[in-house]
Amino acid sequence: MHTDTYGQIILNENDLCELYLKNPNLNLVGAIVEDRLPKTSIIANLPDLTLYNNSNISVEEFDNIQQSIWKMPEEYKNMDIAKFVLEQCKTDYELQRAGEELIIFQEKNMFPLLQYLKYLVDTMRQNNIVWGVGRGSSVASFVLFLLGVHKINSLYYDLHISEFIK
User: Fold this and answer.
1) Is pLDDT above 80 for 8?
2) Long-range contacts: 50-55, Cβ < 8 Å, 24+?
3) Which of 20, 57, 69, 159 meets the CB 3.0–4.6 Å disulfide criterion with 140?
4) Where are the beta strands (DSSP E) in the chain?
């Protein structure tokens, strides 16, 4: 970060990321950023921070906006996530449970989230990033187990999906 001859603060990509990580609610609209950054810069992937300061929209509207702008490759956006999940099942019991959960996820319009989670897990695997075995109520979801989000087989431990989707 430096100041130009007019006293304006000029940010570079690292400054912007550091500010955002320290305070994700910080309104950076109008910030002056050095324009020598490549177009594939992380700046292009920062969320629209004005959404976080808009108290005129409902939580449901906010969620719908966020779900419509997942940053992931087109192959994941276009993936038939239900088909993928069902193909991972090995028994009729697994198919039944996965089907029940997928209906719930579909009713809650959460397929884009499942697509993103598949992308996230694949990306972490490709980059040898280690993540936890599972935590909290998410381990009650067999679908999340099949996607690789966690390593707890909810069928083995007889965990009902209602523990996750409340």
Assistant:
1) no
2) 52/24, 52/25, 53/25, 53/27
3) 159
4) 2-3, 9-11, 32-33
Show which of 37, 68, 99 is a domain's final residue. 68
Distances (CA, A) of 84 to 2, 25, 65, 159: 49, 36, 25, 22
> In this structure, are 92 and 132 located in the same domain?
yes
Put simply, whether the predicted model's pTM sits higher than 0.85 gets the answer no
Residue 37 has pLDDT above 70, yes or no: no
Task: Judge if 81 and 145 occupy the same domain.
Answer: yes
Q: Which of 106-129 are b and which e, b meaning 16 or more Cβ less than 10 Å from the residue's Cβ?
A: eeeebbbebbbbbbbbeeeeeeee
Count the alpha carbons within 13 Å of 1 in the hemisphere toward its beta carbon: 11
Residues 86, 151, single domain; the answer is yes
pLDDT level of residue 139 (50, 70, 90 thresholds): very high
Q: Which residue has the tokens 């996530």?
A: 81
Can you read off the two tokens belonging to residue 48?
Answer: 């629209």
Give the count of domains, the chain. Answer: 2
What per-residue confidence (pLDDT) applies to 151?
95
